[in-house]
Amino acid sequence: MLFNSFEFIFLFLPIVFFVYFFLNQNRLIIAAKGWLVFASLFFYSYWKLEYLPLILTSLIFNYSVGSTLTSNNLKVKITRKTLLIIGITFNLGLLGYFKYADFFIDNVNSLFHSNFAALNLILPLAISFFTFQQIAYLVDSYKGLTKEYNLLNYCIFVTFFPQLIAGPIVHHKEMMPQFETIKNKLKNYKHIAAGIFVFSIGLFKKICIADTFAIWATAGFDHSTTLNFIEAWVTAFSYTFQLYFDFSGYTDMAIGGALLFNIKLPINFNSPYKALNIQDFWRRWHITLSRFLRDYIYIPFGGNKKGELITYRNLLLVFLIGGLWHGAGWTFIFWGFLHGVALVIQRIWNRLNIKLHHFWCWYITFNFVTITWVFFRATSWDDAIKVLKGMFGLSGIVLPDFLENFLFFLQDIGIQFLPYNEIINVKKGFDDYLILLYILLALLVVCFAKNSVEMLNDFKPNLKTSLFVAILFIFSFILMYKAQNSEFLYFNF
Question: pTM (2 decimals)?
Answer without folding.
Answer: 0.92
